[in-house]
Design a protein that fits this description.
By secondary structure, this protein is an alpha+beta fold. It has a single domain, classed as paralog of FGE (formylglycine-generating enzyme). The N and C termini lie far apart (46 Å). The protein is globular, with a radius of gyration of 18 Å. Helix content is 21%, strand content 14%. The protein has a 4-stranded mixed beta sheet. It binds calcium ion (2 copies). The site of one calcium ion has 8 residues, from loops.
């Protein structure tokens, strides 16, 4: 099934209440790493838009995308976990190419329902379709999902921020040494809210069949402290989708200047329905930018000002 159609099918599935609803409500509300998004807002007063705390990443070079050997390695990861996949499933990670990025800030967590609701209250953001069978995702501490890419961009603009570029997102997840997963080289099922292959793509052995409160997997954070870049909700980035990267070095790449023939965007990081190979920092997924699906949310970024 083409990936865009698969996303649409997931959207339908998400809007049909089922037995997982009870699991979602009953999931333990773990505390994360002890600091809650939004507290910065509470302390800083009403002149600043509310939102999750951001982490500054220094200007760096890193290798974006995957080598052919890394694509083979990703395919082998599928095999070890009884997931069917082919090297062609990861061909859009090619070629590996050097990227130089200026310093930027990125949200420490996925944007929460509570944070997004402040934008809805200010009439700058659209209400997610919770009333249409998705009420179980309307919990303050969960990542906001069921948002289009425009919804995500509108929220980030409300905060004086923007969506991360695909390169910024990958740099946040992989670090300057282009590690495989946010926490390091190998997959570990206890470090992210992930899924599995099969008709029911959810996997509850990590504690959550569906969404987890943001920051529930502090052990899966990056060295710089960014949480949930692998799993929980997949995340919108700013770029249009293209099936291969341009070869050669790039500096602060923004993606294609115009949409491709399908007009699709990109989501990153995998989610509660993704097997391990799709939780890698290099993995990409083509997505209909107008779709509102239960496993896609976002976080925001902002270019660093000189000296900050
Ligand atoms: Ca899970
Ligand atoms: Ca995520």
């Amino acid at each position: 099934m083409p990936r865009v159609l698969a996303a649409a099918a997931l959207a339908l599935a998400a809007l049909v209440p089922g037995p997982l609803a009870a699991e979602g409500r009953d999931a333990p509300a773990r505390q994360g790493d002890g600091s809650l998004p939004g507290l910065g807002w509470a302390r800083s007063g009403w002149l600043r838009a509310p939102g999750a705390a951001m982490i500054r990443l220094a200007a760096t070079r890193f290798v974006m995308g995957s080598t052919p050997a890394e694509v083979v390695e990703a395919t082998a990861l599928c095999g070890r976990r009884s997931v069917r996949c082919e090297p062609s499933d990861f061909a859009d990670e090619l070629p590996a190419h050097p990227v130089r990025l200026a310093s930027f800030h990125i949200d420490r967590t996925e944007v929460t329902v509570a944070a997004y609701r402040r934008c809805v209250a200010a009439r700058r953001c659209r209400e997610p379709p919770y009333a249409e069978g998705a009420a179980r995702f309307d919990r303050a501490e969960l990542p906001v999902v069921l948002v289009t890419r425009d919804d995500a961009a509108a929220y980030c603009a409300f905060r004086g921020a923007r969506l991360p570029t695909e390169a910024e997102w990958e740099r946040a997840a992989r670090g300057p040494r282009s590690r495989r997963f946010p926490w390091g080289r190998g997959f570990h099922g206890a470090l992210a809210n992930h899924g599995r292959a099969g008709l029911d793509r959810t996997e509850r052995r990590d504690g959550y069949a569906e969404l987890a409160p943001v920051g529930s997997f502090p052990g899966g954070r990056t060295v710089e402290g960014v949480l949930d870049l692998a799993g929980n909700a997949s995340e919108w980035v700013a770029d249009w989708y293209r099936p291969t990267y341009p070869s050669g070095a790039a500096r602060d790449p923004q993606g294609p200047a115009a949409p491709g023939p399908n007009g699709t965007g990109v989501v990153r990081g995998g989610d509660f329905e993704s097997p391990a190979a799709w939780l890698r920092g290099a993995a990409r997924r083509e997505a209909d930018i107008t779709a509102r699906v239960a496993n896609v949310g976002f976080r925001c970024a902002r270019s660093a000002r000189r000296g900050r």
